Amino acid sequence: MKANYFRLPVLCALLAQAASLWADAPSVQAEILRPDVRMAKTAVIITKVVERYHYKKTELNDAMSSDILDRYIDVLDSNRLFFMAADIQRFQTIAWKWTTS
Description:
The protein is flat and about 65 Å long. The N and C termini lie far apart (67 Å). The chain has four helices and no strands. By secondary structure, it is an all-alpha fold. It has one domain (2-100).
C-alpha cells in the first residue's frame, strides 16, 4: 500500500515535467509546413504502391466465401445467443447460391 502512495506523486511530477517541456516547443511558420513538389510526387508514389500491393489477390471461390461467412457470423454472434442452427444453415444455402451464380 505504501508503494502506491509513493508512485502517485512521482507520476504527477513526471507528467508536469513532460507538459512543461511540450509547452516550450517553438512555433513554426505555416509556409514552412506546405508541401513542395518532391513531397507531392512522393505522396503519389506511396498512394500507388499502397493501392496496388495492399491486398493479396485471391480468387473468391466456395471455400473462401464459406470461410468469410463463418467469420462474419462468428463476429455477429460469437457466443451463439442470437442465431439458431437453422438460421446458419439458411445463411449458408443463400451464400452458396451467390457463389454459384
